[in-house]
């Protein structure tokens, strides 16, 4: 398994767990999570600055050996996404870009049509484009043709922690895509990540489930281990499933 | 003179982008500047003078998935 | 088609009958579902579901963290006029209250805005009474233009308007609409809104539709708890929120949970609601619409609000003055719209949020490009 590197664009990754910087209770949890998980690529977002508040530089929390994957979140059109991508590259974030164009605020579904338009433009400009998409094979093939370096189908809606509800559609993509398939969004627990890897996904991207865990560093490590376990199982052509239950502590004690 | 900063009109003195960023109390290393739809590299902030009706977008990196 | 048409599908008597027949098995089944239907929502609002509060809270906490992270958004209200032509028997601005009325000049509004911005608050909720002659749309539009440079987001909580008027305010920079139906129960609505434009139930209940059609990004609905039978009121509020969320996909929906406090005029609510039932309604909202925001105002006590942080609240106000001109002025002779129970400053509120392991968020949205 030592030679089992994942190649995306010009870079090789030993860890197949990609992570995100959103929803952490505080930024200094991020380097701890990265150290514990061994994740080698992490997403960041760009926003207009608030002049009246102290601004932290998110990038300071990310060690230099971790590849930055700026996303185009906030973009509702291809043009906005292109603009964000160019800014991110210009300021030294590297060539990697996660395309995220969302026009539906209820389910936060990526807009495949706009995403394809952005990919066409940015791949020509030399970006390493990772489009976040609804798992749809025809679109994935068009994205490949347009020069995408990987495709990132969603497992279930962003932040929903529901696991891989789009299993069959992603399996079809895994069977037919020539670029790496990274399952992004909806992976709520390490077993979901393991399941994605057992199916043959090339990597997973996990943010909410790690960031909102009581101990994000430990959860990052748990996801890393599960991702690797799933990868081993895939290569060994074996897989298993399980069931979980949850414990509780009183939240309504203040009413009594 | 009047310029637009992050979509809002502002009255400013003659200055460079770098001076403007400092006046705003921002650390230059934490922000990203888009100037009239072009990105201006940090090395060039000192020599780029802000002119009437210019459009500045000042951005920073935040958490995102 | 509007929510006015939608709500006709529900008969209050049928709901009463349904509520009185809810069994523990029904509640347990609803609690075990991942996605719940209106009938499940009613099960969770029923009286016997009060025994399942802890389980509801566990699930609500998990759903809230999952959808919002460990964060609480902060906002602050700004009252710019207390002139009012309505006669709402529970409200301090009631036209029959002999109070000293005020309307801020644009200069005073700017002063208030600056004073608020000093506290670090970036999301503003702008309020007036209903007096179109005194505070016409032009005036509100000018107020928004003056306040815009100081805030990242401005929402309005005012009298219901026409779609075109909402569009004008949206163009001026308003991006959220808060509008409480107060009472979904028509008979109660009529009883507590004696005169003025507000007596028009139909016009008011369609206002969130008009706001969403005009393009406001956020719509907040609510029933004023205490006016009418709370379980049904909470049910209709939930149905209203779901209807708006389903019909206008580009709109973010949230719940407000105002509960009557004594305002000047000493209104005693006909249907007082206990803390326990209040929390039950909140849990039911969260389980019914996991992605909807939930706002808890300073009408509630500090300690109670602290406890709601972990289990479903997503937006809190702080450093609040509900009297006109209250931020910039030291002394005031203005009458508040309602009495505040939580007097904490913005900094104190932020500290309380951090103490519970959550991050206070002053700004999660910018009116224009780049969200």
Question: What does this protein structure show overall?
Answer:
The complex is a heterotrimer of chains A (256), B (65) and C (371). Chain A is an alpha/beta fold and 256 residues long. Chain A has helices at 29-37, 78-90, 112-124, 137-146, 167-176, 190-199, 208-211, 216-236; strands at residues 6-8, 11-13, 17-20, 41-48, 67-70, 96-99, 128-133, 152-153, 182-184, 203-206. Chain A has one domain: TIM Barrel (Alpha-Beta Barrel), CATH 3.20.20. Chain A has a five-stranded parallel β-sheet with strand order 5-4-3-10-9. In chain A, strands 6-7-8 form a three-stranded parallel β-sheet. A two-stranded antiparallel sheet of chain A has the order 1-2. In chain A, helix 1 (29-37) packs parallel to helix 8. Chain B has 65 residues and is mainly β. Chain B has one helix spanning 17-23, and strands spanning 2-5, 8-11, 32-35, 38-39, 55-62. Chain B has a five-stranded mixed β-sheet, with no helix packed on it. With 371 residues, chain C is of the alpha/beta class. An eight-stranded parallel β-barrel of chain C has the order 1-2-3-4-5-6-7-8, surrounded by seven helices. In chain C, helix 3 (24-32) packs across helix 4 (38-45), helix 6 packs parallel to helix 7 (137-147) and helix 12 runs parallel beside helix 13 (275-288). The chains are: A alpha/beta (256), B mainly beta (65), C alpha/beta (371). Strand 4 of chain A pairs antiparallel with strand 5 (55-62) of chain B.
Which runs of chain B of at least 5 residues are low in confidence (pLDDT < 50)?
Answer: none
Number-wise, the strands of chain C total 9
The figure for the number of domains of chain C is: 1
- Helix segment tally of chain C: 15
How much of the residues of chain C is beta strand, in percent?
A: 5-15%
The major beta sheet of chain B can be summarized as: 5 strands, mixed
Shape verdict of chain C: globular
**What's the SSE pattern of chain C?**
HHHHHEHEHEHEHHHEHEHEHEHE
Q: Which fold name fills CATH's third level, the topology of chain C?
A: TIM Barrel
Show the largest interface: A-C, 35 and 42 residues
Instruction: List the helices and strands of chain B in order.
Output: EEHEEE
Kindly report the oligomeric state of this protein: heterotrimer
